[in-house]
Design a protein that fits this description.
Blueprint: H1 2-34, H2 37-44, H3 48-62, E1 67-69, E2 74-76, H4 78-102, E3 110-116, H5 118-135, E4 139-145, E5 159-163, E6 171-179, E7 181-185, H6 187-193, E8 207-210, E9 218-223, E10 226-231, E11 236-238, H7 241-249, E12 254-258, H8 259-267, E13 272-274, E14 283-290, H9 297-316, H10 321-334
Parallel strand pairs: 3-4, 3-5, 8-11, 8-12
Antiparallel strand pairs: 1-2, 5-14, 6-14, 7-12, 7-13, 9-10
Helix pairs in contact: 1-2, 1-3, 1-4, 2-3, 5-9
């Protein structure tokens, strides 16, 4: 019995030690994500001194400083950034493993972070995320709309809506549709200056270049002779899509944009497509998430819910989609 008691005590000590290490990771991640000990304590339902002690013990045990502390903020060191990536992965795998063995994967839980570009996010994400939350009462969500490529692992993002091909092979992607780079102008401008019939005729027009899609002042397109380019001299260059579109709506010239950015303006008659037959190839839109041995139930549930709805939304935002639908409805009503 004495040997059994010692064995039980040693196992209990070992188990508590392992659990303490997971607790350390959870506290460390909370401090890193909130940027402060007080905010991390509020998230964890703990106290700032308790959180500070856990982080200090972790740093002392490993002999590494994870945070650079000032009176105003807490900032990750380079070692902290590396450790954060690993810690998140371990905690996510633990959460997923527990959910799978207990059957909780049938009811996804937790906090979901989603990111997309600003304009695409504003256009399609809110109703999709809202519908997903209505369907999954145990999930909370945060959407980050940013016009930059986000490092999903470093910034703790679960899912991203990405436009374009993915060079990063560590991400898993599901294709959900395509968008097109198109040229548009206001009906008033086209009535005054005439609509160009060829790419070369673009040189005779006032070009408003959205520089993210036309960095060299060139319009690249696919024509009868394959991939071609026409060099332009824009009258106005701007790095903001909304401003470029507004300038075109005001009748100041022809601008370039992604199709979803101008779908509403075309539908409402403020803009009209130009040279739709001379556009670049479609650009893929994908839902991406970090590669992992175990995909969190909340991520799997969101991908399955969002993919068909994003695909449907993008179909509605294609140039001419609404006109084709309206024509079909009129034919049905007169048939």
């Amino acid at each position: 019995m004495k040997e059994y008691a010692i064995l039980t005590r040693d196992y209990s000590t070992y188990w508590n030690y392992r659990m303490d290490r997971f607790h350390e990771l959870k506290v460390f991640v909370a401090v890193a994500e909130t940027g402060g000990f007080a905010k991390a304590a509020a998230r964890l339902g703990s106290s700032p001194p308790a959180v500070t002690r856990v982080v200090a013990a972790l740093e002392q045990r490993l002999g590494v400083e994870f945070f650079a502390r000032t009176t105003r903020r807490v900032r990750l060191t380079e070692a902290g950034k590396l450790f954060l990536e690993r810690a998140r992965g371990l905690l996510a795998d633990l959460e997923t493993a527990e959910s799978e063995v207990t059957g909780e994967n049938l009811l996804p839980t937790g906090h979901l972070s989603v990111t997309a570009s600003v304009t695409l996010g504003r256009t399609i994400l809110p109703p999709i995320v809202a519908g997903f939350l209505n369907a999954h009462s145990r999930i909370t969500a945060k959407a980050l709309l940013l016009d930059r490529i986000v490092n999903l692992i470093e910034e703790g993002i679960d899912v991203a809506v990405r436009i374009g091909d993915l060079p990063d092979s560590t991400l898993i992607a599901r294709h959900v549709g395509d968008v097109r780079r198109i040229l548009v102008a206001s009906p008033g401008y086209l009535a005054k200056r005439g609509a160009p019939k060829t790419a070369a005729e673009l040189k005779l027009h006032s070009i408003i270049a959205f520089t993210a899609l036309m960095p060299n002042g060139e319009w690249a397109y696919v024509g009868e002779k394959g991939a071609q380019r026409v060099a332009l001299q824009p009258r106005f260059e701007i790095n903001d899509a909304t401003a470029a579109i507004a300038a075109a709506e005001a009748g100041n010239g022809i601008t370039n944009a992604l199709s979803y950015m101008v779908a509403k303006s075309i539908r409402e008659g403020r803009l009209a497509p130009v040279l739709l037959n001379l556009c670049p190839p479609p650009v893929p839109v994908q839902l991406v998430y970090p590669e992992s041995r175990l995909v969190a139930p909340k991520v799997r549930a969101f991908i399955d819910y969002a993919a068909p709805r994003i695909r449907a939304a993008l179909e509605q935002l294609k140039p001419g989609a609404n006109a084709a639908r309206g024509k079909s409805s009129r034919q049905a009503s007169t048939g």
